[in-house]
Amino acid sequence: MDLLTIDIAHVLAGALVLTSFMLLYQDRLSGLINIYTLHAVVLSLSVAWQAYYQDAPHLYVTAGIAVIFKAVIIPFSLRRIIERLRIHRTVEVVGGVGVTMLIGIFLTALSLVVMLPATASADPLAREDIAFALAIVLLGLLMMVTRRNAVSQIIGFMSLENGLILAAAGAHGMPLVVEISVAFSILIAFIVIGIFLFRIRERFDNVDLFELDRVRGGRS
Amino acid sequence: MSSNLFMVSNALIGIPAAAAIAVALEPEYRRSAIINVCASGATFLFALVLLIVEPESSDYLFVDDLNIVFVVLSTFIGFTTSVYSASYIDHEIETGRLTPANVRFYHAMYQSLMGAMNLALLASNIGLMWVAVEVATLTTVLMVGIYRTPHALEAAWKYFILGSVGIALALFGTILIYMAAEPVLGQGYDAMVWKTLMQQASRFDPRMLNVAFVFLMLGYGTKVGLAPMHAWLPDAHAEGPTPISAVLSGLLLNVALYAVLRFKMLLTANAAAITPGPLMITLGLASLIMAAFMLYRRDDIKRLFAYSSIEHMGIIAFAFGMGGPLANFAGLLHMTMHSLTKSAIFFSVGHIAQAKGTQKIAEIRGLTQSQPALGWTLVAGVVAIIGLPPLGIFMSEFLVVSSTFARQPLLAIPLVFGLLLAFGALLLRLTGMAFGEPSRDAGEVKASMLPLYAHLSLVLLAGLYLPSHLVAWFQNVARLLG
Known about the structure:
Chain A contains 8 helices and no strands. Chain A has 220 residues and is mostly helical.
């Protein structure tokens, strides 16, 4: 396999990690959705490159799903939701951007340190992809714990799922069942969340999870 | 023979799936409750057939001694819970807490959950198993939020977020297992099927398996409710309908545990990989002791027993973590006994909460006088769950403790400490609720006692006498677990 192929794959996976970092510090909801769209596009490019390199046509389907579903439908409906809820101008208070970024860097380093030796026997392309994928998963988790707003938490969760798809695409010849099921589960998960958002709206008049905390009152 | 089995194992998934559609189309809630009971009963009967028919595996489903135990247990409790659920739902509709439309949705989700759990247990493919666990999670999330009160929504949201994170970590672990298997088994399905994975496990790269197991343990462990990933469990139990609390504690936690056990077997088969035992022992003990302390400060009756479930899942994970024929046997027995007892307790707690109109422990007093049948079954259930003789849990806990003393005496100290701590807490709460001057009833409740008596008598029977067939069967499974 020639070096250029590997390099392109790494550039794309690395770009996905960088986009995850951008998600970490973006404090406007509409900006967050834009970056998530970028995230999905980079993911689909990366998966498409894997499809080309592994000569696995079914991965093009996964890439197509990523573009249509995640880069078009989900951002579109999210935008509608935040407009309906009139929170599209909301600037979220993200406490300690510097600290969050440092933790993010630490998590990325951690995933490289853990995954690269563990996957020494796998081929070089897959092993760096999986290390990057773990970094994206961890950054998604980090975003979910640092945000209070339900919409940002969902975006954090979806970026995490993108990391999983990158990992699944990197694993040679992993049966299609899994990839499609991942896409479907995102769809289901999204519907579930959508229902929740509207119900939360009914009850609280906004989707800030601080409100949920208030409801909890003294209970632990 | 194999075509027979193929039909049977398909029926275990097909019946709930068909029933889910049927109840979704049925607007009358009493009739849909009957369909729910019939479908669950039929599924249970088919599960019993698995005991007689010689197991053989198909492409997507397979049956071995290990998953039969789980399937029979989970379809049985699914059946009894559906009977209980019928009377519970009746009361909820009469008091207006649920609308018929809610109930239609509830029944459809109940059957989907049963189907998904059977699929997770029977799946021969690690990817398929993951999908089934995810579907089971989503259906329970929807059911937990069904009352649509702020508390219920908060519980469902928390469950959804933590459950998704757990399930995402489990998928990452699943992908890593595939990557470890792929150089040996080649690309495609073979590298995801349990049978081939188990045969070739010794040739996989141990480092990759190690990392994968950490993710799988944390991911599926979240669904088992092990500390420190347990935060969703008490809320989900307390805010959802009580039949769902019974099913969550009695079944869904077991299904997640089954996934952990399968992967544990895979790692045990590879000599160079880490031994998964210590990780399970640590998480198990942490859950046991944390939950035992938390039991003292609960003021909600369903939350109290939810923490007791965390405690018992901790004991079970501990027992399987110890490993070896005796501890595995004890773990299996304890899992069975806990499922039966805990769902029985939730059956009685559900009706008690309906009769008293509250879940606050402080407002429930003197149950044995005001509601003798419910009160005394609660006493019997709690006596069973804290491990008093002659009931089944006494025996399984005794086996866990004695096998620990024999092999790792030092580990027995925290184990016994946690058990005694939980014992005290539950006894303390029970005396307050069951005896003394009774508090006022909020209304009449038509309780269905049959499922309750069935579970409790099985637990009593197991404590007095275990049939030799069952012992031989469990011993066989315990050997399989390694």
